[in-house]
């Protein structure tokens, strides 16, 4: 776990810096200096682009990671990498043509409830394409076990761009229309920078001598489109569907609460950047012992971190909402349901990596399609009935069912489980901290209240983890820190 812990720590640090910048943008700049209508519009554009991204990427990011380690000779790798660069165009070109010919139809569909969205179909396509090729070049770097720079570009670059644009908007130097155009430009520039970095690690040599197993590669890529789309649909479809049922301002309110809960997913996102190629390597070598060890350790480590983040957020939420404008308060249940889904997701460790890099990916993708449909149906049912809380419950329900199925499937096919006795010890520790700190309230400034309660909770949590050596990896990190 050495390389995993090292790069995971670096990625986690970078991702939290990105989230800190995002917090300034989301909780202060957007909420105070942009009309909720336009903030909601930007969220719809970015969410719709994210939903489109897996289709335009043609499954290449996952395919790169899965198959690259199986090619040992440079000639075979050159043909494979050339194929990976060309595949996305198979869907980018027809989608671009459809966007051009059916621009009004697509615009009318997206703007049924909110006409403001109608004129931004091309923005969605261009950002989606930039996101797709960014992920391709990011995967290109990850197969070389270089995930940190790509994570920096993914988590920080566009957020800093938004900060600059929001400050210019606050100073009335730019308009909202210019803001949206410039934001689109940042996504394109990010993709180009990632391309240059990926090529610096391995310059492609065009070779149309494609691998002998090209049919298997194409089949996997096509199926991963479905898998990638499923994950994104479960994550982003709620914002897109809120736009179709209630006023677009509500997308802004929901996004703020959702952003707060998404902090829980940061460690998981960071660790997966490096565990994904390791999992592929273990599966290609049929090293079941290492796979089992990675599964258990990734699950325990992520649960330890995600669990305490969930409690820190919930138990400090009232103080946090005091500092937000009135319209953005009252999202406690949104944070609860989305946060709970993220904790469960973290508990599964590298489950996704195992499934998508194994020979059983087809069955899991089938489950994913059914559950993506279920997520849409849940939203269709719950948003009109319960509004924003309904969207959060729909997201939790879809994630809960999807993750439970994946957990059972890996257990059945590989005879491994992420849970150990330490998992239940951590659960008991979290429950104890929740009970002890639930009623603890300070009467100082909200920021000071959050800092004091958080420090007390973290000190007790880490103290117990260290004293009883519940996790070898966490104990090792704490020991090194204490020695320094």
From TrEMBL:
Name of this protein: Polysaccharide biosynthesis C-terminal domain-containing protein
Top-level taxon of origin: Bacteria
């Amino acid at each position: 776990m050495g390389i995993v812990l090292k790069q995971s720590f670096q990625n986690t640090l970078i991702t939290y810096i990105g989230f800190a910048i995002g917090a300034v943008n989301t909780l202060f700049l957007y909420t105070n200096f942009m009309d909720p209508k336009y903030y909601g519009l930007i969220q719809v554009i970015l969410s719709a682009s994210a939903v489109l991204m897996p289709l335009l990427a043609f499954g290449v990011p996952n395919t790169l990671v899965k198959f690259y380690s199986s090619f040992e000779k440079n000639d075979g790798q050159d043909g494979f990498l050339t194929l990976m660069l060309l595949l996305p165009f198979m869907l980018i070109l027809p989608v671009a043509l459809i966007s051009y010919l059916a621009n009004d139809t697509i615009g009318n569909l997206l703007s049924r409830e909110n006409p403001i969205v109608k004129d931004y179909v091309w923005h969605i396509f261009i950002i989606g394409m930039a996101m797709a090729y960014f992920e391709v070049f990011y995967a290109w770097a990850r197969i070389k076990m270089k995930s940190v720079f790509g994570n920096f570009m993914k988590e920080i670059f566009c957020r800093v761009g938004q900060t600059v644009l929001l400050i210019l908007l606050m100073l009335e130097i730019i308009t909202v229309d210019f803001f949206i155009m410039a934001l689109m430009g940042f996504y394109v520039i990010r993709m180009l920078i990632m391309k240059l970095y990926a090529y610096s690690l391995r310059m492609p040599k065009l070779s149309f001598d494609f691998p002998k197993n090209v049919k298997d590669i194409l089949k996997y890529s096509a199926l991963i489109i479905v898998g990638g789309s499923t994950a994104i649909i479960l994550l982003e479809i709620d914002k897109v569907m809120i736009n179709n049922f209630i006023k677009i301002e509500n997308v802004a309110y929901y996004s703020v609460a959702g952003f707060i809960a998404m902090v829980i997913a940061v460690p998981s996102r960071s660790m997966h950047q490096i565990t994904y190629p390791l999992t592929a390597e273990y599966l290609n070598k049929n090293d079941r012992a290492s796979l089992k060890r990675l599964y258990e350790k990734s699950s325990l480590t992520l649960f330890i971190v995600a669990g305490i983040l969930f409690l820190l957020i919930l138990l400090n939420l009232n103080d946090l909402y005091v500092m937000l404008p009135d319209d953005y308060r009252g999202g406690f249940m949104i944070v609860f349901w989305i946060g709970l889904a993220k904790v469960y997701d973290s508990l599964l460790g590298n489950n996704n990596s195992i499934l998508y890099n194994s020979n059983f990916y087809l069955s899991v993708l089938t489950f994913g399609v059914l559950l993506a449909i279920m997520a849409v149906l849940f939203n269709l049912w719950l948003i009109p009935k319960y509004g924003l809380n309904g969207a959060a419950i729909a997201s939790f329900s879809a994630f809960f069912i999807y993750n439970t199925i994946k957990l059972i499937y890996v257990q059945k096919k590989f005879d491994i489980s992420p849970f150990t006795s330490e998992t239940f010890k951590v659960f008991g520790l979290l429950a104890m901290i929740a009970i002890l700190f639930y009623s603890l309230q300070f009467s100082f400034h909200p920021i000071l209240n959050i800092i004091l309660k958080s420090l007390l909770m973290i000190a007790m949590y880490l103290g117990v983890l260290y004293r009883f050596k519940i996790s070898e990896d966490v104990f090792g990190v704490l020991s090194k820190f204490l020695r320094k």
